[in-house]
Amino acid sequence: MAEQATERMVMAASPEQCFDVVADFERYPDWAADVKEVDILSRDSEGRPSEVAFRAAAFGRSTSYTLAYDFADAPRSLSWKIVSGDLTSMLDGSYSFEGVDGGGTEVTYALQVELRVPLPGFIKRRAQGRIMHTALQDLKARVESSA
């Protein structure tokens, strides 16, 4: 059964700046701690990456997965669904960006994960929480350093 979680964080940057960092997949290894390699496999009619392969650190080993991206609500949100994965059978999610009073952006990160390897629920939830928190912390550091 897929585990689902959502986490929010306010960042000192515009929604467009946050979106631009999230959509710049080739730069993920520069700032996303667990992402080791990114390969753009295909692009949509506007030249945006539509299918992206990742190699990342997970559970003390390396994992590979490919995600298909949906830019339909850009730059308000960016969503994805898994195409393939060696450890995950589901890794679907989204980022949404909403301006807040006084400046800045509330970034909401939603993620549904299902692992191919059975693990106790509390371990999956702890890992998912770490992934989400680290992803938002890394994004915040990158966005605010370039804002």
Biggest sheet descriptor: 7 strands, antiparallel
Kindly report the CATH topology.
Alpha-D-Glucose-1,6-Bisphosphate, Chain A, domain 4
Q: Return the CATH class.
A: Alpha Beta
Distance separating the two termini: 39 Å
Describe the structure.
With 147 residues, the chain is of the alpha+beta class. It has one domain (3-146): START domain (Alpha-D-Glucose-1,6-Bisphosphate, Chain A, domain 4, 2-Layer Sandwich), CATH 3.30.530.20. The chain is built from three helices and seven strands. A seven-stranded antiparallel β-sheet has the order 1-7-6-5-4-3-2. A hairpin with a 2-residue loop joins β3 and β4 (61-70). The chain starts with a strand and ends with a helix. The mean pLDDT is 90.
Main features:
48% strand, globular, Alpha-D-Glucose-1,6-Bisphosphate, Chain A, domain 4, alpha+beta, 147 residues
Fold topology:
Elements: E1 3-11, H1 15-22, H2 28-31, E2 35-43, E3 49-58, E4 61-70, E5 77-85, E6 88-99, E7 105-115, H3 121-146
Helix pairs in contact: 1-3
Provide a compact summary of the structure.
With 147 residues, the protein is of the alpha+beta class. The protein has helices at 15-22, 28-31, 121-146; strands at 3-11, 35-43, 49-58, 61-70, 77-85, 88-99, 105-115.
